[in-house]
Amino acid sequence: MFFCSLAFELTSGIVKTRQTNGLEVLQENNTSVAGVLHHKAGNKNYDLRRYFPQVQLEGLIEQFWFVDWQLSGDKPHIQNNLPDPNFHLVVEAHQVKLIGPVSKLYTYTMKDKGRILGVKFNIGALSHLLDKPLSQYVDKEFFAREIFSDQVESRLLPLLDVESDKDIFNTLSAFLLNYTADSCVTQRQALALCTLIKNDTNIFSVEALSLKTNLSKRAIQRVFNKHVGLKPKWLIRKYRLHQVLKQLEIGSIDILGVVELLGYTDQAHLIRDFKEIIGITPGQYLK
Question: How many angstroms separate the CA atoms of 177 and 175, rounded?
Answer without folding.
Answer: 6
